[in-house]
Amino acid sequence: MKTLSNHFYPSPGLPPWMWYWTVMFIINIPDLFKTWQTSYETLRFNIDSMERLKAVDPLVECFSILSYPGYFTENLPGIILLLALFTIVFPGIRSWVIELRNNLVQPPPSFKTLAEIKYFIEEYAPGLQMKINLKRPGLIWIYPNGYRKATLAVFSGFIMLWKTNREQAEAILQHELTHYRRGDALFLGPGSFLESAIKLTLLFYTFFVAMPYIITSIDYKIQLSKSLQKIEAMATESYILAIAKQIFLSVLGLLATTVAFLVKALSSFVLPVSCIWAAELNADYLVTRNPKHKTALLYALSRPWGKVSWWRRMLFKLSHPPNSLRRFYARHSDSYYFLFLLLIFPLAIFVRIAILHIWFFFFQGSLSVVSALAGRTTELTWPEFWQSFVENTRVALTSQSLNWLLMTGLLIVWVFIVHSWERFFTGDNKQLSSETNYISNSSQAGLIRVSHQSQLKYFILAAVFTVTIFFLAIMWRI
């Protein structure tokens, strides 16, 4: 039996950054709980402060509910990520929902085209199951039905493509098979971790942030209007101006709160998104190792969208790199751009730090707006802001010092364990082709042979980069 590596795996590809992030996230769950506890204590303090202010100004009472949106704005992304992990913990439930929603069934044995596809799958990815829905448009995608098991969903569009353009269909199929062999199925596809997180984010934000803010603002305007109407000497122009000012501040406050929440959510999602992008670009990269399918893949990435709902298209664009970026790396897969692919997750840590700085700015802005609505002022001077900027950067880097060291280790050992990693998920215990063995007869000769040694230097450079950041973080901590 042939293996997939015989055809387009002359490179170990990228490390499994998604698995790495998931393990680190689970390890840090106790710290996440401590953060929530601290935020809850702050929430209780704010509520008690509101109770004391009611004795001074009764209108303050309507603002007490705004403490809760602030709490959810800060902690909701972490809560959502934890809930979304259940799609990984219970893949069987996710598989059942996907198959029920998409009417997926076992393929009939008499269908010649399906028999060819099934034979292709068995040849390159033994153990992968296949289910179909020939009444629904679309191509293919993969979803898990166990921790080490996956199923390929095949739709009518892929059957037509298999008949009309076999090379392009094989390139698309090999892309999905790569996800299976690398253990990506738990994180990708419909109902995946990221898709669930995005849906929960929009739902929770609507009910726990936006709606309380809108209701509170409307209630405040009503109470303010009644108070102003009791002032008989107040001119009509002044009355209208006071109401318009409060409406403007409410809209500005909701906008600032919304931006602060979205930026905070982005800071929480940027790392898993970078991992999913890495998995997609890695699958493209390994497909292009076969010159036969490189052109076919480029053409497939240039295909226009079919009849897909705007919601599904948005989710796809959020969980997949832009096709322009995918085509770029497919064309330059043999160049030094591979180094940036290796570092896509480590570099995302710096992106997250920058996003957190932006969130801090908008969070301070939202606090100022809420304070203005309550008739109070809070200002953060520029020296204090710069000091906070430097301190937050220091804490963000030094707190990740162990993370940088572990990433260095993963980059170093990946070329040694990649085949064992694939065998773990596919159950294929056959020895891979000597043509593409990254390690050949190392136990006998004590030598390491890496195919395409130009790729090895990129792993070394990436490891040098991460270990340098590790030492810089240690020095800054001291």
Walk me through what this model shows.
With 478 residues, this protein is mostly helical. The protein has 2 domains: 17-395, no CATH class; 401-477, no CATH class. Helices cover 71% and strands 3% of the residues. The protein is built from 20 helices and 3 strands. It has helices at 5-8, 17-27, 29-54, 67-84, 86-89, 91-102, 112-124, 156-164, 166-181, 193-229, 236-287, 291-301, 310-319, 323-331, 338-342, 344-373, 382-398, 401-426, 442-445, 453-477, and strands at 129-133, 140-144, 150-155. It has a 3-stranded mixed beta sheet, sandwiched between helices. The radius of gyration is 27 Å and the shape is globular.
In short:
The chain is mainly α and 478 residues long.
In the residues, how many domains can be counted? Answer: 2
Biggest sheet descriptor: 3 strands, mixed
Give the helix level as a range of percent: over 70%
C-alpha Rg (nearest Å): 27 Å
The dominant shape is: globular
- Report the portion of residues in β strands: under 5%
Provide mean pLDDT, rounded. 77
- Helix count, DSSP H or I runs of 4 or more residues: 20
Structural classification? mainly alpha
Arrangement of strands in the largest sheet: 1-3-2
